[in-house]
Specification:
The complex is a heterotrimer of chains A (419), B (473) and C (253). With 419 residues, chain A is mainly α. Helix content of chain A is 78%, strand content 1%. A two-stranded antiparallel sheet of chain A has the order 1-2. The radius of gyration of chain A is 23 Å and the shape is globular. In chain A, 56% of the residues are buried. Chain B has a domain at 209-349 and 372-472: DD-peptidase/beta-lactamase superfamily (Beta-lactamase, 3-Layer(aba) Sandwich), CATH 3.40.710. Chain B has helices at residues 2-38, 44-52, 80-90, 101-104, 106-109, 116-125, 140-153, 187-191, 213-223, 258-264, 267-277, 279-288, 314-321, 331-342, 378-394, 454-472, and strands spanning 53-54, 58-59, 65-70, 73-76, 129-130, 133-136, 159-165, 171-177, 232-234, 237-240, 243-246, 254-256, 346-348, 353-357, 363-364, 371-374, 407-416, 423-432, 439-445. The longest helix of chain B is centred in the N-terminal third of the chain and has 37 residues, at 2-38. The radius of gyration of chain B is 25 Å and the shape is globular. Chain B starts with a helix and ends with a helix. The chains are: A mainly alpha (419), B alpha+beta (473), C alpha+beta (253).
Chain lengths: 419, 473, 253
């Protein structure tokens, strides 16, 4: 009996997964420690697995959370810390801090979804607040890399479009579940307009895609969705003809090699890094990842491919696929339209963002400056991605509660039947 | 809710599809273009590797060392003449020639592919690391000879020549003129208006001229049922869209068959044939020969050949039939066209690597000869072979004939007016019909004088190459 | 550590990392599969999962005969087309007629879509009217199009009150008047054979093992004077202590 229990303990998929993840990071940081005997690497080789243990095994006991989602997101966050440490340790320490903050934010989001029953007031409050937040960088922000989408609060740089995507999800799923067209249309349109003014095309594409997909799911109206898609394509063509920087981006995408020293430099370096990695990579801590221009945010996938190889890069993609699978399952099991749309929206947001940035890095689509969820350096991005997972887990825990309630009702019914 | 749940499933499937697209595109592009991206001269990893690793040797098929490293410096061996002959194939240590062996095979030459066990041995022994030695399918002596033939028959002319084995696809020789000495690159070399760094055999595209008539004839054989027996009237010229297309030397051939027209290289007949065929059928045949395809050979980087698809009118179509219009092909590709006809319609992928040996002596397995595509059926290939035999026997290409060998070929002279002034290119593509000497040749001579054609400029060079190859047996 | 030694260690370690990456993905997907199966099993045991009650058809059509019971989920759409949660294939019903949500402690709230009308206990509801004042509760009568349906809530759900059910069996003479409450509770329901929407459609090629097979038991014989029940002395049943029900989440408004 005891033997059997032990066996089932060993077969527990959660433990199997989290132990592998912990082993991965322990060995990786130990390897980096061997490189130049920096004590920080040794400390991280113990601290990161400990953090993962906290996040994956302890957190679900204290709070209602989904273990699979937790292990995958923890793996991706820690992977970001690892890759950043291998390239530039300073970024890694900050990222590790944000990782902790992100875990707390996630728990808060879980509870928000569980506690708030009447979303009308929060949603009505969120609308002007988030629009105002989105406008701020236009007023007090500085322009970097052609986009004007962030500003400083003290010494912290804040990218409001990352925060607003949470409220966008809440707002559009609330009004869509109520079958009210106008409010969310105005809000989403306003967001897109402001993003266009900021020249933040990647985020605009993401917002647009998620809104359109959620509209399709909530209404089932293929015709209007098609009209929306055609409108988006038309707007893209208009943007291509009107804005010089869009034209430039597309030209780079079509042939980065023609101007490899100036315009196409980023993409050429990225492709070279991926090609240098080959199937298994050049080895952790080796290679020249820092020659890729923005290796810590946009091109972190190229760095992963260079260091760990194509096979590992494919594994990372599959992890995102697993997150999407889980998210879709949660959304399909949701009991109300609002919660379903919220969960699906969070899933689509993560998935679309990953697609947009990885597609840009491997030259499948024109490059747009979006961060890779969980992995890229950047406090706002990491925390907001964790919040998205928090929303998802909130819905998942509500589903779990509902199933418990159903079980109770079924028991009650059978008792009544017996009486 | 029920519908919403169903649509969620569809949305999730769409997302899976997008991710599948990412994986498939990423995998595909890295397996096909990966080596090209990696060996790009601006790759900082290669530059860094050059500091620590001693580059391997480059050896030709007869065991002659072409390039080696002495005291950390790259040395190209042999006389100046032979160094100049192979410089475009090999490339130079500065990376001026793009996609030579020096840059395109960096993976092997600089030891990126050294197995881990061997690296461990090197580390334990405390030696410096050496890259792999690369053996090429090139006959460096033939390359030197070809440059001599050029200066004998066409002194001072630029041009290119390619020799390949049409049964296996091995590249035997490839030269480009003007060339330069890789051991002595000066400011004058950089400023030379002839652009000596440019590899004319694989990087430049030229109008193929009359040598494209092989493809027009193939298309006619494929699509017009009784073309072999038909007699076509040649009036010496044709007026299409108020522009005259004349025969070479304004000859009038009267009635003649396709075979005779091919032998005499009659423009009139082939323009008529092209107009009869129509654009689509001709394009289809050209594409089956590799036009408009993205060449992704594993050993070589070859510029893509184009069959024009835009702005097609009757005049353009008529001139396409005789290899003018906006047609463009490299000497390398025209050599492959001749090779495909010689090899009964099967076009082989050109190969350059014969073997790769690591510094410790273990040989790396390389891929086998591979078919690139099937260009035409064996029956049509046999017909074309007889046509091409006639050309050398009694047609325009008699100067390519070599006693004791059956030579087949097609001459060509193409006109181009790119930079204002008209330039004429002399072409000869051909092969030896002999299973012991399965070699195909293409020769291009740039800016030949008026009154000359491929038959008087390129064909003698080809004849000398055939004579050299005859001596190999 | 010297660079060249580290290089070799790192090059050897990259296979280890690739292996671990593949292992992690494999385990994650196995977990997903396992969870999916477990969820199926759980939902199979709860055929009414997510349902708050059923609509009993009082007046229907050929496609929806009288006495059919349609399960009603917590929230969804009622209408003519198959994509709706409650399908009412009766003349006069729009493809998507009315949205509904169950609110704990109140009842089933109806939100008719634009241009649609329905009657709850003879009160007309359109998309303009304040429908929250007229929730459907246990026994309420709903009239959409030509169909008349009656809601029956499952046990254990909080609703504010029960509907007053007047006599309405027109097909019988009044002296045959049955007990009013029996009228709809004892209908011989024709349960729909459709699987619960919470279960995903079963793969017919996958061999289904019965989850739980009842052990063979001898059927007790019918009680009669020939076969009296065994003697059981009367025992006082211990009273269940009062357990306050834990506060349930009521759905967002």
């Amino acid at each position: 009996m005891k033997n059997k229990q032990e066996r089932s303990f060993r077969k527990d998929p959660g433990r199997l997964l989290s132990s592998t993840v912990m082993l991965f990071f322990f060995s990786a940081f130990l390897l980096l420690f061997l490189k130049d005997y920096a004590w920080q690497a040794f400390a991280l080789s113990l601290a990161v697995p400990a953090m993962i243990w906290l996040g994956v095994n302890l957190l679900p006991r204290l709070f209602p959370a989904d273990k699979l989602l937790l292990s995958l997101t923890n793996f991706l966050c820690a992977l970001g810390v690892l890759v950043l440490y291998a390239t530039n340790p300073d970024y890694a320490y900050q990222q590790a801090t944000y990782y902790g903050v992100g875990l707390v934010a996630m728990v808060i989001c879980i509870y928000l979804v569980r506690i708030i029953r009447h979303w009308k007031l929060p949603v009505l409050l969120l609308m002007p607040v988030s629009l105002g937040l989105l406008v701020l960088p236009l007023i007090i922000g500085k322009e970097t890399n052609g986009a004007r989408n962030w500003f400083y609060v003290g010494s912290l740089s804040v990218q409001p479009s990352e925060i607003v995507k949470l409220s966008l999800l809440l707002i559009i799923s609330y009004f869509m579940s109520r079958r009210k067209l106008l409010p969310w249309l105005i809000f989403a349109g306003g967001c897109l307009g402001i993003l266009m003014l900021q020249k933040d095309l990647g985020t605009a594409l993401m917002y647009y895609g998620v809104t359109l997909m959620l509209f399709y799911a909530s209404s089932g109206n293929l015709l209007l969705t098609g009209v929306g898609l055609a409108g988006g394509a038309g707007a893209a063509v208009m943007g291509y003809k009107m804005f010089a920087h869009v034209k430039k981006r597309v030209a780079i995408w079509q042939n980065p090699w023609s101007d490899y020293d100036n315009a196409g430099y980023q993409l050429v370096q990225s492709l070279m890094a991926i090609a240098s990695g080959g199937l298994f990579g050049v080895g952790l801590g080796l290679g020249y990842p820092r020659t890729i221009p923005v290796y810590h945010t946009d091109f972190i996938f190229a760095v992963i491919c260079e260091q760990f190889g194509l096979i590992f890069g494919l594994c990372v993609l599959l992890m995102y696929v697993a997150i999407i699978w889980r998210g879709a399952t949660v959304a399909m099991a949701a009991r109300t339209s609002f919660h379903g749309l919220l969960a699906m929206g969070a899933t689509l947001m993560i998935g679309l963002q990953t697609f947009v940035i990885i597609g840009g890095v491997i030259k499948l689509i024109p490059l747009t400056g979006v961060t890779m969820p969980f992995v890229s350096y950047g406090g706002t991005s990491l925390v907001s991605s964790m919040c998205l997972v928090g929303l998802l887990q909130g819905v998942a825990s509500l589903n779990e509660d509902d199933l418990d309630e159903d079980t109770r009702l079924a028991m009650l019914g059978s008792q009544e039947g017996m009486r | 809710m029920k519908q919403q749940r169903y649509l969620f499933k569809i949305l999730a499937l769409i997302m899976f599809g997008l991710f599948l697209l990412l994986a498939v595109y990423g995998g595909y592009s890295i397996t096909t273009y990966g080596n090209r991206w990696f060996s790009f001269s601006r790759n900082p990893r290669v530059r860094a590797q050059k500091q620590t690793v001693v580059a391997g040797d480059i050896i030709d098929r007869n065991g002659i060392t072409l390039a080696t490293t002495v005291d950390g410096k790259r040395v190209y061996q042999g006389s100046e003449e032979s160094r100049r002959a192979v410089v475009h194939l090999l490339g130079d240590s500065q990376g001026q020639v793009s996609n030579g062996v020096e840059t395109f095979q960096t993976r092997y030459l600089y030891g990126f592919e050294t197995p881990l066990s061997e690296r461990f041995q090197t580390l334990m022994a405390g030696e410096t690391r050496h890259g792999d030695n690369v053996k090429l399918t090139i006959d460096s002596q033939l390359c030197t000879e070809i440059t001599r033939y050029f200066s004998k028959h066409n002194p001072g002319k630029n041009g290119a020549a390619v020799v390949m084995n049409y049964q296996t696809g091995e590249l035997i020789a490839q030269i480009s003129l003007p060339n330069f000495d890789p051991m002595n690159i000066t400011q004058a070399t950089h400023q030379d208006p002839g652009q000596p760094f440019w590899n004319r055999a694989t990087q430049s595209v030229y109008p193929p001229g009359s040598s494209f008539k092989t493809i027009t004839a193939t298309s006619a054989l494929e699509n017009i049922p009784d073309i072999t027996t038909q007699e076509i009237l040649c009036t010496g010229g044709l007026r299409v869209m108020e522009q005259a297309i004349r025969d070479y030397g304004n000859d009038v051939h009267n009635k003649l068959t396709l075979r005779d027209a091919f032998k005499k290289s009659c423009n009139n007949v082939f323009t008529l044939t092209a107009l009869t065929l129509g654009d689509e059928k001709l394009r289809k045949t050209a594409e089956s020969f590799g036009f408009n395809d993205n060449f992704l050979f594993r050993d070589l980087v070859v510029e893509n050949s184009t069959y024009p698809t835009e702005n097609r009118n009757q005049f353009e179509l008529a001139t396409t039939g005789i290899g003018q219009s906006a047609l463009a092909a490299t000497p390398m590709h025209m050599c492959m066209v001749a090779a495909a006809i010689a090899n009964d319609g099967v076009m082989m992928e050109p190969r350059l690597l014969m073997s790769v040996t690591t510094a410790k002596g273990s040989t790396r397995p390389l891929y086998q000869p591979k078919e690139y595509r099937t260009a035409l059926t064996p029956e049509h290939a046999a017909t074309l072979q007889t046509y091409m035999r006639d050309v050398v026997k009694s047609g325009t290409g008699t100067r390519a004939a070599v006693p004791g060998l059956i030579i087949c070929g097609k001459t060509g002279s193409a006109e181009s007016s790119l930079s204002g002034s008209d330039v004429t290119y002399g072409w000869f593509i051909g092969y030896i019909e002999n299973d012991d000497l399965p070699y195909a040749v293409s020769v291009l001579v740039e800016s030949i004088e008026d009154g000359q054609g491929g038959g008087s400029t390129a064909a003698p060079i080809a004849a000398d190459i055939f004579k050299y190859l005859q001596g190999l047996r | 550590m010297p660079d060249n030694i580290y290089e070799i260690i790192s090059l050897a370690a990259r296979y280890w990392f690739a292996l671990l990456g593949v292992l992690i993905v494999w385990r994650a997907f196995r977990w997903l599969r396992k969870d999916r199966k477990a969820n199926h099993r759980r939902l199979k045991q709860l055929p009414d999962a997510g349902m708050i009650g059923e609509m009993v058809v009082l007046e229907g059509s050929d496609e929806l005969p009288e006495g059919t019971a349609i399960p009603v989920p917590r929230a969804g759409v009622m209408g003519f087309v198959r994509g709706c949660d409650v399908v009412v294939p009766v003349e006069g019903v729009s493809p998507r007629h009315v949205d509904f949500t169950f609110q704990d402690g109140k009842g089933l709230l109806l939100f008719p879509l634009r241009g649609a009308v329905c009657y709850v206990d003879d009160v007309e509801l359109t998309h303009r009217s304040n429908t929250k004042k007229h929730p459907m509760c246990h026994g309420s009568r709903l009239q959409i199009g030509d169909a008349v349906l009656r809601l029956r809530l499952f046990a254990g759900l909080d609703a504010e009150y029960r509907a007053y059910i007047p006599y309405e069996r027109h097909d019988q003479p009044f002296w045959d008047e049955p007990d009013v409450t029996q009228d709809w509770q004892d209908t011989n329901y024709i349960y729909r054979q459709e699987p619960s929407p919470w279960q995903e459609s079963q793969n017919p090629w996958e061999q289904q093992e019965p989850l739980y097979e009842e052990p063979y038991q001898e059927q007790p014989q019918e009680e009669s004077w020939l076969n009296p029940p065994p003697y059981q002395p009367w025992q006082e049943q211990p009273q269940q202590p009062y357990q306050p029900r834990r506060r349930r989440r009521s759905h967002e408004e």
